[in-house]
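Researcher: I'm preparing a figure for a lab meeting and need a structural model of a single chain. I don't have an experimental structure, so a prediction will have to do for now. The sequence is pasted below. Please return the structure as tokens so I can convert it later.
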Amino acid sequence: MTRATDNRAGSDKLTGDESGALGGDSQELQTKLRALERALDLRQQSPTEVLAEVDLLLTGAEPTSQDAYELRLLRAACLRLLNRVAECSEELELVLAECESANPALALQAQLMLARQAFQRGELAVSVEMSRRCLAWAQELGDLRLEGNAYYQLAVPNAMQDQLDEAMPLAQRALELHEQARDERLSAMSRSLVAMLLVKQGRNLEGIRLWRQSLQFYENEGDDIGEVYELHRIGFATWCQGDLEQTRRTLERVLAIHHSRPGVVDPPLLMVVKLNLGQVELWDGRLTEADVLFAEAEAIALDLADQATLVNILTMRSALELLSDRTVNARTQSQRAHRIAREIALPFKPADDMTFALVEAANGDWKAAIGRWPTGAFGKPDDEQRMNLSGIDLLLQHLEHRAGVADQARYARWREEIAVKLK
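Model: Understood. Here is the structure written out token by token.
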């Protein structure tokens, strides 16, 4: 199951006392800026509306002032949310170049936002390298919030690739720094990442407890977006426990909030929720419902140019096509996933490789299938891997039932291998 990372501006900006300490030129303008940041975070105004107000304020600001640069960072956040990627990057690069000497803290913010953009494009190595530079820079400046943000951005790619031993200390350090800075919003963000890693380690109750802490903060703040992110994460925990029905109810609640509250407009989250709900429907045998959800998720991924998530969607669509006995279509989706993954240097997980091996087997290419099937890929699987392996077993059962005698024996051997891993 794909986990959503908070896509809002909250982790990009300076907040609380720190922003005032930077010494904006106009108290009135600073007040308006903070109000617009909050309006964007809580979706009290759309990114388009906030962008229009920012552009208006920029016409009255001194171009090289603190206020102007902060407004331009907020402008970049709006552009990112509007998926105007090239304009966003251009704005950030300009702020970085102009502020590097005169205002290192703002330049560092721009660099962190660029690293985040690289991650969302699926350029993990680029994002990690930029985040490492940001961490060293933040430590040099002695800035707790930005140092915490850098640790957070270093943790996320490791978490998404299930490198738990590397991710956990980074996430815990991010939370520690955000709590030291007394920034409740950033603390809630980092706490959610620690919670996810705890769930990945099989410590579900601890993870859910932390998620509920963050959920309480967002509810108290009236932050609909934060609320649906935390509910989605709790859905991930119930998925790891194998409770498909509770996961379905939680994700459907997320979709209901998303559609019923005007302030909740977050395409990246909507994309991941539809992907995950589609996965629930797929493994529960509701193929038509899964197909619709995957198609909707794919359309959003294409619109956002989110290549990494698109690979996940295409992998699940390959599995769907296998269960629908459309083996040629399954191979087409598999080939698309491989092409994109190569372009962005995205590694596949063992369960993905198993899916692709079954695609080759179903199409009669057992040499390719055996070469693709992972051997000794991991030891004792965590709860999420167990759910993924259970899905692979469903695929194997389906293919074995429809295969000839010789192929049935091959599928049966793989099922035995899965059974050993699930013990």
